[in-house]
Every structure is written in structure tokens, then in C-alpha cells.
Amino acid sequence: MATGVIVLDFGAQYNQLIARRIRELEVFCEVLPGNTPASRLSELKPRAIVLSGGPASVFVADAPKVDPDVFALGIPVLGICYGMQLMARVLGGVVKAADGREYGRADMTRMDHGAPLLEGIPEKSVVWMSHGDLVEAPPPGFEILATTPRTPVAAMGDWSRNLWAVQYHPEVHHTKAGLEVFKNFLYRIVGAPRDWKPANVIQAGVDQVRRAVGQGQALIALSGGVDSAVAAAIARQAIGERLTAVLIDHGLLRSGEVDEVRRAFRDIDFRVVDAHKEFLTALKGVTDPEAKRKIIGREFIRAFERVQADIGPRDVLIQGTVYPDVIESGGQGAHTIKSHHNVGGLPDDMAFRVVEPLRWLFKDEVRRVGEGLSLPETLVWRQPFPGPGLAVRIIGEVTEAKLAVLRRADAIVREEIRRAGLERDVWQAFAVLLDLRSVGVMGDARTYGYPIVVRAVESLDGMTADWVRLPYDLLDTMASRIVGEVPGVNRVVYDVTSKPPSTIEWE
């Protein structure tokens, strides 16, 4: 994908949100580590660079650093929060520890300099602050563009070098005119083209698949989820009948999943491979979440290699990998949150070249592309389901018995969400089986059964999420049905944590 804007990440809580805001304005954006050398950035030829915020203080010895040459590339730069402090410190401004950390809403006053960064923003506006250090005096060549009662330099700019910065967070919705800052930076200052649109993404994906496959044939890893469905539609448009879709039934799917997917993809060469014995054998005795994911990634590839041996040469494997998979798996220099089976879990010795036409997209962007491809609404808006399946919703060892318990409980959760008409309001709703037992009483007798955790979250792109405030009567119905209909379960609890600090899945 051609580089538009690069966000240099200094550990910001909101760095993915910065990327989302830029993409919402139809400009492509990707996230790279904050210490990416200026020479590498020069090779990538971005139209602009954004320095993200971060939790560190610029005065700490091991604080994230930026290559000073970034500011001499002649590329417009926007610093946000910590990114502003780095810019000021590197270029000769005065940064100091604030008398008190400033969090939350602040009243900002814009100076009347006609600065393009703040054009159209009211003289008085509400912004969102989150910082302990502040810029007391800007570097030579900079002008102060805005202040708050506690922050003498809330925004600054150097017209001649096209260097701009704000102390607050324009990416969060609490900053009332935050999107205007990005619009001004991207359109007025950078002159970035608005070419990040579904039609362009589709064509880029089609071209990528055609180049990779050439005159040969390819496999598409199809799970029935929106990511793989969109990837399959792009691949089908690219190479037509030379595409074979394969669903690996690893024994970790939800109740009725195979039949649902088979019905949805009746019009293409679609094959189901029963590999549940191989997967469960490989997972036997394994309790570590990272080990599970890597084993599943390896076994997926081995299963596809067996398919290749059966139906003939297909050296390209197409996957519906999306950008959050890459970020959370430690791609782009980020910390590894969890190794997605289709990224961090791939073996080095696989017999395929992997093609990922959706690799740079967030989930909501995948849905927009799916609509652009005229895919059925039932596919485009299907709730996400992880590739490792129920293995990451069973804490501890995965066994046939635990899978049977979880399938029944999960089916009840999804059925009740559907019955309540909440499928489009809930990003994901599912059950989790814990690796412990609790005491209960059923029919006047003591029981010692599994607890089931119900998880329901709302999200836009999967990078952040909040728990859904489901009605009490709905939770009561779920709990009553699960305890009454699923043998071996005597307790139901509801997960009320957001992402962060937790993740959506439990493993």
C-alpha cells in the first residue's frame, strides 16, 4: 500500500485512534515505531509524519526518542502531546515538569495568528489534556498558537519548516474541534489526496492478488467471518475460478458453523477439511495462550499443505489478515499483545507464499469494502470470530469435553442476543469457559461445576472496546438457560472490563 501518513508511535494509548481519524478523512495512514530512523522514513516518502503521545516523560533516561533528522526531511510534521514535547526538546525549546499533571477537559484560547493548523477553530474551545510535562517556551522559529490556563503552549507552529504541534489530544471525541485539526493539517498544510476509499482499496487488493498468483492458482483460507469473506471476494474478482476456498474444521468452531459457512459460499469452489483430530492432538496438555495460538497457526498451515497435496499445486495462500492482527502480534515494531495464529503463529518452513489484501485495514474499513463488493449484509455484519476459535475462549487445556460445554453455552448467548434484536448493536457476544470449578447447589445437592463468563462488547475496529450494558432481564435469561441446559455448569458471571486494560478475547 502506498504510504500516505506515518504515525510514529511513542506508546500512546490513542495512537491507533490517531490512525483511525486520519483514515476517516480518506487519507491512508500506518503506524511505525517512534524510533524509526529518518533514513527509513525518507525511503517510504510519506506525505506527512505524526508524532503520537505517550506515557513517558522526556526527562526519563530511557524515554522514547525520535531521530532528530526527522525534522530536517522537509516533510510536514504534527506532534501530539508527548510528540510535541519531543519536538520542542529536540529543536531547542524549553520543556519542564508541570506543577500538576493535567488530565481531562481544558479551556483553550486560540491566538489570532491565522495559523492554518487552527483555522476555523473557535477562539475559545474545549480540548482534552493528558500530560505531566509541558512546553514552557517553543523552539526558535515557532510561534505560540494557543494556550490554556495551565498550559502556556497548548499549540505551536513553524510556518517555514512546516512543523506543527498541539499539547492536547485532537483524536479523542472530547476535544470538540479535534477533527478540524486533522483536516487542517492533512488538507491545508499537507495537501494530501483523499484516495483512501473502498473502490481504491478493492482495486489495490485485486491488483495485489493478480501479481502474486500470476497465471497459477491459489487457496483462500475461509472461515465465514467478514475478513475472510471480503478477502475471498477480492480474490475471486482477481483470479476467478482459479481460486479454491478451504475451510479448515479444526474442531474449535461454534455450533452449526460449518453448515452456515457452506451455505454462504455455495457459488465458489469450496472445500471443508476435517482436521479436528490433528488440532486437538497438538493442543493436548497445552495451557499457555501464546503456545496455543502458535500451535494453531502451525496446524492451519499443515492442513493447507495437505489440501495442496490432494488437489494439486497452489503455492499462494490468501488470508483475511487485518491491521489489528498485525499490530497485536508485534508487527510494525509494536509490543506483542497476543500472536494471532495467521501472523505470529505461521511456521517458517511453510510451502506457501502468503498474500493478505486486507492487511492494512481496520475492521470497520473491511466492512465498508465488503459493502463496496455488494456482499450480503449477513456476511458483512457478522460478529467477528477468532481464527483459533473456541481454543482462546477455553482457559487452560482444550479438550473435547470442554468444547462440548462451551459450544452449548455460547449458542445460548448468541441465540438470546439475536432474540433481543441486539446483533447490530453488539460487536461480539460470546461465552468463555474458565479453568476452575466452583461449588453450587442444584436440586438440593452439592455441585462442583464450571463457571461460564459471558462477554459482550461494542467496538468500531477491535483496537479498543467497551463492555455492553446488557439489560438485566436478558442477562438473567442467559444465566438461567446456561445453568439449566448445559451439564457441568453451575455459575454464570458477566465481564465488565473494557479494552484496554483487557483484551476482547480472554486468551
Mean residue pLDDT: 87
Oligomer: single chain
- Helix/strand-derived category reads alpha/beta
First and last CA, distance? 31 Å
Unreliable residue stretches: 330-345
The backbone outline, from C-alpha atoms, is globular
Largest sheet: number of strands, sense, barrel closure = 9 strands, mixed
Number of strands: 19
Cα Rg: 25 Å
Total DSSP helices:
14
The proportion of residues forming helix, as a percent range, comes to 25-40%
The fraction of residues assigned to DSSP E strands is: 15-25%
Placed side by side, the strands forming the largest sheet appear as 2-1-3-4-9-8-7-5-6
Please describe what this structure looks like.
There is one protein chain. The chain has 507 residues and is of the alpha/beta class. The chain is built from 14 helices and 19 strands. Helix 6 crosses helix 11 (363-372). The model is unreliable at 330-345 (pLDDT under 50). Strands 2-1-3-4-9-8-7-5-6 form a nine-stranded mixed beta sheet, sandwiched between helices. The protein has a five-stranded parallel beta sheet with strand order 12-11-10-13-14, sandwiched between helices. It starts with a strand and ends in a 13-residue tail after the last strand.
Q: Which key terms come to mind for this protein?
A:
19 strands, 507 residues, alpha/beta, five-stranded parallel sheet, nine-stranded mixed sheet
